[in-house]
Amino acid sequence: MLLPNPTVTYSNPDTTATLTLRPANNSGGVSLVTVTATDDGPGNAAFSQSFLVFIKSSVNTLPTVSIIAAQTLPEDATSPTLSFNVRDAETPVAAVTVLARSSNQQLLPNANIVVTGTTTNRNLTLTPALNQTGTAAVTLTAVDGAFGSSNMTFNVTFTNVNDTPSISTIANQTISEDTSTGLINFTVDDVETRPGNLTVLGKFGESNFGA
Ligand SMILES: [Ca+2]
Ligand SMILES: [Ca+2]
Ligand SMILES: [Ca+2]
Fold it and tell me: Which of 45, 72, 53 is nearest to 154 (CA)?
């Protein structure tokens, strides 16, 4: 019984009556209430008016977020799409929002976590900052329409990929025969290897112009 004791207050000859409804504890649902007025004429003619009462549950069930396994991914690349799902007992799933944050902003800024989807199935991609390696904890928070929330956290580790070394541009050179250029400077660089440990080789392709 959702509305165990509806109470009508009416004093003859008032034209106004009041009705008090109090749902049973911990109840939720819809109830049809009918109010009937009866006269004292022959046959006690009666007239009824009905309306619906919607009783909201006061207990909000928290939304759920499915688990994403720990990920190990190469640096400098966007992750494959990671799928997860959200559910809520009361809020339509399209209205359940997902917020994402990273424990390591230098490695994985919050702005580089992209969550998409409006159904139960949601998608996530992660893009680490350039040349950053290490582990970040990613926390997804699902929020329902009653501001109930649940968290799910997984670790993502970005591992080093050997970046190719670089050499600065060297301009084309013109030298007269039987002379030498001065020293031609250029710089070498590598993300992982210190310059002192790089190997630099010269190789020569020749063309002769007449003889
Ligand atoms: Ca809920
Ligand atoms: Ca690297
Ligand atoms: Ca390298």
Answer: 72
Residues, Cβ < 5 Å to ion ligand 3 = 162-163, 190, 192
Cα 113 to ligand 1 centroid, rounded to whole Å: 25
Domains of the chain from N-terminus onward: 7-55 (no CATH), 64-159 (2.60.40.10)
CA 104 – ligand 2 centroid, Å: 18
Identity of the residue numbered 79: S
Distance (angstroms) between ligand 2 centre and the Cα of 162 equals 4
Q: What is the pTM of this model?
A: 0.65
The Cα diameter of the chain in Å comes to 137
Of 47, 38, 48, 33, which Cα lies nearest the Cα of 12? 38
Query: Which residues in the chain belong to E strands, given as ranges?
Result: 7-9, 18-20, 29-38, 46-55, 64-65, 71-74, 82-87, 97-102, 113-116, 121-126, 134-143, 149-159, 166-167, 188-189
Q: What is the pLDDT of residue 114?
A: 98
Residues with CB under 5 A from ligand 1 (ion): 60-61, 88, 90, 144, 148
Using 50 as the pLDDT threshold, list the residues of the chain that sit under it.
none
The CA 133 to ligand 2 mean position distance, Å, reads: 8
The identity of residue 147, as a single letter, is: F
